[in-house]
Amino acid sequence: MYDIGRSRRASKAFSFDEIALVPSRRTRGIEEVNLAWRIDAIRLDFPIVAAPMDSVMSPATAIAMGQLGGLGVLNLEGLWTRYADPQPIFDELAAIEDQVSATKRMQEVYAAPIQPELIESRMAEIRASGVPVAGSLSPQNTREFADVVVKASPDFFVIRGTTVSAEHVSKDADPLDLKTFIRTLDVPVIVGGCATYQTALHLMRTGAAGVLVGFGGGARHANRDVLGIEVPMASAVADVAEARRDYLDESGGRYVHVIADGAVGRSGDIAKAIACGADAVMVAAPLARATEAPGKGYHWGAEAWHATLPRGERAKFETIGSLDEIMNGPSVTPDGSMNLVGALRRAMASTGYTDIKEFQRIELVII
After folding, report:
1. What is 16-366's CATH number?
2. What is the CA radius of gyration of the chain?
3. 195-212 as b/e, with b when 16 or more CB fall inside 10 Å?
4. Given the DSSP bridges, would you call strands 280-283 and 364-366 parallel, antiparallel or unpaired?
5. How far is the C-alpha of 299 from the C-alpha of 318, rounded, in Å?
6. pLDDT tens across 32-45, in order?
7. Residue pair 20/367 in contact by the 8 Å Cβ criterion
8. Global pTM?
9. Domain ranges of the chain
């Protein structure tokens, strides 16, 4: 603990940039590394989930992500569930360079109501392709649209917000008690974000299949600048992984998956997140560089178009390759922005680990 003046104390926390992996075993051939991840009844070829952000996930890119062996999560409060044909809006937003004008326009287009029939049709489109189906709602809209989502029979229902607690209370709506709510569903739920041991433990006790650690996507710096909130991800993932272990004992063997969701911008961050204890990572910014990304190089999250308190500007990325190339290579960039799966496989092979659970026990150093 550190003293902040005479009356306040704070603990030291670490980001992914402040830690590194230590090779401490004999190296392995990359062909020996198994990246398979099983959550609930679904087996994925690698532990990478595409974040539910309009700039990177459309029904088409969610299908493509699934066909590559990962999991794509569609934002069920985004443009794809507000407009029958949102492509002209994406084109319009991509043509606006001024950030203030872009924010105003996003506030306008996202003011259109969510259409339940579009939730069903978008998820049915993904289902018809034969890949796993996942959709995301914020805690504020979960109760209103949950029946529609469940009716669409997704493989996963993601409840994702800036910060999520086991009970969301509002005087303007009925409180959302996740413990009661999740146990009434037949669909596995992934919920977050959270950043501390205690909050994660509470979320695990709701019956969730997975817990998101962090605030996701492009919100990290935005929330720090506007709200004063930031999550040092290495410490947060390690704390939540500890909560997972304690809950495993408390529940008599129920394993809740920990998914790092934030500050994962490069392939090295993916390896560090898993080394800190994550079972998988949720990525967004790397996918915004794909030629198929709906945002056409621009990247934003729900915080960017908030009706009364938008947080952060749209990020602009250079398009560098297809979604397949960004996930599986070959890479033409030397900075960890392409071949995310291959880089994780190489990191594990170079440090002597052949599966994810083993890799979570690797030695770390502070740099």
Report:
1. 3.20.20.70
2. 20
3. bebebbbbbbbbbbbbbb
4. unpaired
5. 11
6. 999 999 999 999 99
7. yes
8. 0.94
9. 16-366
